[in-house]
Amino acid sequence: MQAGREVKYQIWIEPTREMKTVTALLFDDDGQLFGVKTPDSEVNSCLSIHTVRVRQFTGLSDKNGKEIYEGDLVEISDHPFEGPVKVNGIYEVGYNERMELCCGSWLLHRELPYIMVVGNKYVNPELLEVGK
Q: Which residues contact 124 (CB under 8 A, 6 or more apart)?
């Protein structure tokens, strides 16, 4: 995790298949998410934890300046190590077992000059198959 990064979230709403920017996440006393506020709505407390996926901004941007969120699909291309080691491809952004931001098994912050966001695992799950 990048220290001092801007904290921003998006939510994927499964029933309507919409991605929305979040202005506030509301939690109950037990730490359970019970409401979400977006720029175009009041607090929505009708969302079930089973139908909403929260995505956090990584604090990083791709080579074109696009913000990278957890669950984004990024394409690595023109990597200088390509050849003896297969690097180029499409990878999901997430955390490894040491809580380091990665794309596949590659550390995200080291690959930024070669990365472009091409979608996310909710809107474009088919890209995960292409990347294999």
A: 73, 118
- Is the pTM above the cut of 0.90? no
Task: Return the amino acid letter for 32.
Answer: Q
Q: What are phi and psi of 64, to 5 degrees?
A: -100, 5
**Interval 29-74: pLDDT, tens:** 998 887 888 888 765 655 666 788 899 999 999 999 999 999 999 9
What pLDDT, on a 0 to 100 scale, did the predictor assign at position 1?
46
Thinking of the domain 9-130, which architecture would CATH place it in?
A: Roll (2.30)
Q: Break the chain into its structural domains and give their ranges.
A: 9-130
**Cβ–Cβ < 8 Å for 86, 131:** no
Buried b (16+ CB within 10 A) or exposed e, 51-89: ebbbbebbbbebeeeeebbbbbbbbbeebeeeeeeebeb
